[in-house]
Amino acid sequence: MFKKPLPDFTIQDTYPVCINYIDDASIKQHMVDMQDHIYSQSEKYLELIHQSKLEELDIPTIFKIPRDENGKIIKTHKNNWFVKLYKYYFSKNEQRYVDANQFYNRIKLDGVANCNSKRCCYCNNHKIEVVDHFLPESKYNFLAVNPINLVPSCEECNDNKHAYSPDDLNPVLVHPYFDNIDHINWLEVRLNERVEDISEKKYIYSFEYFVKDLDECPISIERIIKTFEELKINNNINFDAQNFFNTELIYDLIDPEELGDLSNEDLALHFSKKSKRLISQGYGINHWKVALYEMLSNYSDFNYFKENPS
Ligand SMILES: [Zn+2]
Predict the structure, then answer these.
(1) What's the CA gap between 161 and 40, in Å, rounded?
(2) What tens-digit pLDDT sequence spans the chain (310 residues)?
(3) Cα–Cα 20 to 30 A to 197, which of 146, 163, 249, 275?
(4) How far, in Å, CA of 178 to CA of 146, rounded?
(5) How do 150-153 and 130-133 pair as beta strands?
């Protein structure tokens, strides 16, 4: 959803390092034999993502893992080792696996350095905590340690996305390395309702974030909407937005030493400036706080927010 720099290393760097850790000679040989297939799937991935057709990426039978009579995959099968490469070495924070694990850490670090958003590639809100498989490794085992499919995200988005995979009915999510929509203002927020907090004798305001209707967009808007919905981004950012509004901003609007004495025109101007300042600080035009300030800068009467329940 938010553009991140593509790692400067490839599957040709990560795969040999990972399989080198395998002790069992026959499994290791199997992984060596599969190397060219792994690389060729990576080429296909790149071709398809550039055409926005990643859902057409096939899973060659050579990578399939047979199932037992109960329909469960046979965990001892050699093809199960593709995901084990990720679990045992690539994501393992242990000194003896440092040659593989450094790639994992570089993906997380690159998500912070040299890019507009220093935060999760999906929500642009939480800090980067994990590496997410853009296409799930449970289905696309051959992508388990491929950097083009490994993106820096927060735990919440990683959990919400789970094993999402595109098909004929479900579009490919917005890819943080290959889709750039940072310059398009697609995020908007509206005031949802206010409810009375009886014990505190005040109103609690709630909001709803959504993907705007866009006239022009470099990718299909369905992909943005699907990413927003699948990862429950409204829940994610709304929690922080409502907390900020109800515990901070609403008090500033009343406090004469803060914003309380400003006219409606000056308040609208104040929020417009706040929004522009955040953008200049690198939050991006699609950060929840920018959208919130933007919404407020369009209000003509702020007295609604200064009311108390009678
Ligand atoms: Zn996130």
Answers:
(1) 26
(2) 899 999 999 999 999 999 999 999 999 999 999 999 999 999 999 999 999 899 999 999 999 999 999 988 898 999 999 999 999 999 999 999 999 999 999 999 876 775 666 899 999 999 999 999 999 999 999 999 999 999 999 999 999 999 999 998 999 999 999 999 999 999 999 999 999 998 888 999 999 999 999 988 899 999 999 999 999 999 999 999 999 999 999 999 999 999 999 999 999 999 999 999 999 988 899 999 999 999 999 999 999 999 988 7
(3) 275
(4) 15
(5) antiparallel
Whole-number CA gyration radius for the chain: 24
**Nearest-CA neighbor of 309 among 180, 233, 166, 200?**
200
Answer yes or no: are the C-beta atoms of 191 and 204 closer than 8 Å: no
**Spacing, Cα 116 to ligand 1 middle (Å):** 15
Q: Spell out which residues have Cβ within 5 A of ligand 1, the ion.
A: 120, 122-123, 126, 154, 157
